[in-house]
Amino acid sequence: MEDVARAAGVSPATVSRCINRPEMVREDRRLRIRAAIAELGYVPHGAARALASKRSMTVGALFPRLNSLLFGSFIAPLQRRLHAEGYTLVVSSSDYDPATEQQQISSLVSNGIDGLVLIGTNHDPEVFKLLERKAIPFVLTWSWDRNLPQPQIGFDNASAAAAVANYLLDVGHRRIGMISGPAAGNDRAGARIRGVREALAARGCELPARNLVESPFDIKAGGKAFARLMGQPDPPTAVLCGSDIFAIGALFEARRLGLSVPEDVSVTGFDDTDLASCVVPALTSLRTPRAEMAELAARYLLGRLAGRATGSQQLETELIVRESSAPPAA
Predict the structure, then answer these.
(1) Which residues have C-beta within 8 Å of that of residue 37, sequence separation ≥ 6?
(2) In terms of C-beta density within 10 A (0-12 exposed, 13-18 middle, 19 or more buried), how is residue 241 classed?
(3) Are 243 and 311 members of one domain?
(4) Closest CA relative to residue 207, chosen from 263, 155, 168
(5) 120 within 8 A of 156, measured Cβ to Cβ
(6) 38: Cβ–Cβ under 8 A, 6 or more apart, which residues?
(7) What torsion, rounded to 10 degrees, do the Cα atoms 151, 154, 155, 161 define?
């Protein structure tokens, strides 16, 4: 930093301000400092900055998996918002394994993260105790449970899935199948199954065990689950998928089986990812507020780190009806 200051003809304190609070430095000085930084190849020393500020300027985010189009649409706006305030996002994955999740969180904490974003509400109580003991602010996302004391920025998965089930009932379907992610260790999948069952029961229908297939999150696995449902003697007239990934696999498998969607069977997705409007037929899907959720989660943590009081927020979802669903054939 002293070398940069000497080359730019300013003080080291001005260089520091230019890096951390550039709006506080005159434009002519900013230009000279940035030119000196580029010429000298200066990179601030993260450990030294953390010692001086007692902040690492990093926020961790732990996801169930990273090879997912879905979580990518959350990571990008989360990173943009944090970066605008000078924070770096550090991303990790648990692969839906509670032991791995604990290890990853311990690693993030030991590396000095200032805050943490978690997916879902189902976490080992020891995780919350560790974060509270270390005074690390955190926020739960992608779920909503009004009975939990932890801060949440998310949506009600049960009511969202119930909205899809009620739509299918409204257009005339009574034999409804469901493809879901594994419910064990995944509160989002479990809540969606519960929401569908409750919606069907309220209308005098049911989701029998044979019409529910829990599957790994994979397009090919979604196709296999669809084939299993449609191979029954009395197959569903509509298949409600707990993920767009499953629904896209179902569309591919329907074509392979010679079934027409939605004439022979309706198919719905969940999350309304970018692919939902691009496949043929375009997919009816439940739109989840991923970008808004990421923005608000970042704001929550930034507020806590700045000493401001912030609270939980429940977000709304929206059913987007497209070509893949219609009333059942006569």
Answers:
(1) 4
(2) buried
(3) no
(4) 168
(5) no
(6) none
(7) -120
Does some domain include residue 253?
A: yes
Half-sphere exposure of 285 (CA within 13 A, CB side): 24
Helix (H, G, I), strand (E, B) or coil at 34: helix
Kindly tell me the burial class for residue 45, based on how many C-beta atoms sit within 10 Å of its own C-beta (0-12, 13-18, 19 or more): exposed
Q: CB of 223 within 8 A of CB of 251? A: no
Number of domains in the chain: 3
Asked whether residue 324 is domain-assigned, the answer is: no
165 and 308 in a single domain? The answer is: no
Q: Is the peptide bond before 262 cis (omega within 30 degrees of 0)?
A: yes
Indicate the pairing of strand 152-154 with strand 176-180: unpaired
pLDDT digits (tens, 9 = 90+) for 127-147: 999 999 999 999 999 999 999
Quick check: is 80 in a domain? yes
How many other CB atoms are found less than 10 A from the CB of residue 86? 13
pTM here? 0.84
Decide: 267 and 254 in contact? Cβ < 8 Å.
yes
DSSP 157: H
Whether 151 has a pLDDT exceeding 60, the answer reads: yes
224-262 pLDDT per residue, tens: 999 999 999 999 999 999 999 999 999 999 999 999 999
C-alpha 283/C-alpha 275 separation (Å) is 8
Which residues are within 8 A (CB) of 84 and not within 5 positions of it... i.e. 6 or more apart? none
Would 50 be classed as within a structural domain?
no
Pair (39, 85) in one structural domain: no
Give the separation between CA 297 and CA 153, rounded to whole angstroms.
Answer: 6
What is the rounded end-to-end Cα distance, in angstroms, of the chain? 76
Give the amino acid at 220.
Answer: K
Q: 172 with 145, same domain?
A: no
Residue 18 domain boundaries: 2-44
User: Is residue 326 within 8 Å of 171, Cβ to Cβ?
Assistant: yes
Contact 207, 194 (CB under 8 A): no
CATH number of the CATH domain containing 35: 1.10.260.40
